Amino acid sequence: MKKTFPMIKNHQYENLVWADLASPTDTEIKEVSAQHNISPLVAQDLLTPTPRPVVQILNNSFHAVFHFPVFKQSHSEGNSQEVDFVVGKEYVVTVRYDTVDALERLGKEIEVRAIVDKDLRHESAGVLLLFILKRMYESAYNELDYMNDVLSQIEKKIFSGKEKELVLALSQSIRNLLNFKKVMRSHPILLSHIEEGGKGMFGKTFEENIRLIAEEVLVLSEEIDNSLELAVSLRETTDGLLSTKQNEIMKTLTVMAFITLPLSFIASFFGMNTSLPIVGTPYDFLIVIGIMVLTSLFVFLTVKWRKWI
């Protein structure tokens, strides 16, 4: 399919460059690699998505592959979006294979800031990387807030008598939260490697800031666990309500069968092809009906007395 708009978005402030590539072609990768002296092996990895998280510490640069959870703001199938980072002293290259809303918004904001804030030229690539990571994690928090809103709506409806629908919705929420947790599991390790590789390039301030971001990620992981615990508890409650309702239905049907059993016996008894008392006498039909009604009433009162219903 022919591209109708540029897939390389360059944001430049003096010597600092952020090159943002969306589903890049081989030509685009070669162009950016030549501009920033990116290793051919790293350039090859940037051509296609990488299923696993990766950090490679190179000479005066590093390459990191992150996967961020996405459900509400997804533009394609799947529950994660990959963002590859190649960071040098004066450049940040991001490569993505989907529309990542957080990066799109940050790019527009930085363009505006470049107009009104001439001090951007004094910022390092490490500061820009921190901006990008913070925005990506803010987006992850927004995704979790969205999932918590879904759980809140389910919690409000839990006693509404719609247990079947809620069980399905809770199962989907639990699956999404498990996927969320799975995607985020590797981030503390990735950030620790970036901290180690970046402190020599950007100094102690970068090390301290990346450590603060890592702490935020740990808090996010705890909130995911809390949301998952809530979803599981709601699922157990809903299962209990559904089971109770089913038991009540089965009990009602059993009692109804117990009440109608004598009627079936009486009907079968007087339907036998032989000489029977009452049959053939005046008002025999009404008498049989009366016996059946009295028997049903007796059984019903017995069931009520024993509090079976």
Ordered list of secondary-structure elements with their pairings:
Blueprint: E1 8-13, E2 16-22, H1 26-36, H2 40-46, E3 54-58, E4 61-69, E5 80-88, E6 91-96, H3 101-116, H4 125-156, H5 163-184, H6 187-202, H7 204-270, H8 284-305
Parallel strand pairs: 2-6
Antiparallel strand pairs: 1-2, 3-4, 4-5, 5-6
Helix pairs in contact: 3-4, 4-5, 4-7, 5-7, 6-7, 7-8
Keywords:
309 residues, alpha+beta, six-stranded mixed β-sheet, 6 strands, disordered N terminus
Shape: rod-shaped
The count of DSSP E runs of length 2 or more, i.e. the number of strands, is 6
Number of helices: 8
Terminal Cα span: 68 Å
Helix-strand pattern: EEHHEEEEHHHHHH
Strand content: 5-15%
Order of strands, widest sheet: 1-2-6-5-4-3
**What does the largest sheet look like?**
6 strands, mixed
Oligomer: single chain
Provide a descriptive summary of the structure in words.
- This protein is an alpha+beta fold and 309 residues long.
- The chain contains eight helices and six strands.
In short:
The chain has helices at residues 26-36, 40-46, 101-116, 125-156, 163-184, 187-202, 204-270, 284-305, and strands at residues 8-13, 16-22, 54-58, 61-69, 80-88, 91-96. With 309 residues, the protein is of the alpha+beta class.
